[in-house]
Amino acid sequence: MTDASPLNRYQLAELGAMLAEPARAAILLALMDGTTRPAGELAHIAGVSAATASAHLKRLLEGGLLGLHEQGRHRYFRLANDDVAAWLEAMALPQAARTATVVAARDPALCRARTCYRHLAGQLGVVLCEAWLERGWLHVGSDGISLLSDGADALVQAGCQEASTQQLLRLRGRHCLDWTERRLHLGGPLGVAITGAMLDAGWLRRAQRNRALLPTPDGLRRLAELGVRLDS
Description:
By secondary structure, the protein is an alpha+beta fold. It contains twelve helices and eleven strands. It has a three-stranded antiparallel sheet. Strands 4-5 form a two-stranded antiparallel sheet. A hairpin with a 6-residue loop joins β8 (174-177) and β9. Pfam families: HTH_20. Residues 4-99 form the HTH arsR-type domain.
């Protein structure tokens, strides 16, 4: 899954086969929040035995969809990179066209704001991207999306003290198509850094049960100062 080795029909069929197994799909979905998890936890989530999970994890690793972190005798698994997360999110789009209304009714918080791997998605992510493009804080160039100095300064001055202005100016992001909103939000390293800064500042907090991000009252107020306003 790289520019140097574009997919051929056999590789595409192999990717489809990896997703066709519900247990492997469950493992990938569990890691879409950007966490790193041990095999035992992933086996429990997928509803399979440890031996079966081990076989599934091996195939996903060999297929390039997972990354591995080893710490002593312990092994922890994560999605391989942002590209894999974006691909999985895009794969959900055809089904999402039929289920987005149901998801919104059952879990409005997930649609309002959530992580797409490690960056902000949902209504809040889309509104932020559109508002900052309109203000001229984001610039779309041939090398991706960059945050301009006015935007970086405004973010820090609004209370994101953990954000490094110089780091934000160096990072690049990219557009990511949101599966519930069917519009674009900000992904890539820049999107990850901004989301992390908002979490550190207490503007957002993670939900316990899924990928939803819950804006705090202070976070909503500060985001509104930056032109990011959610519908009530």
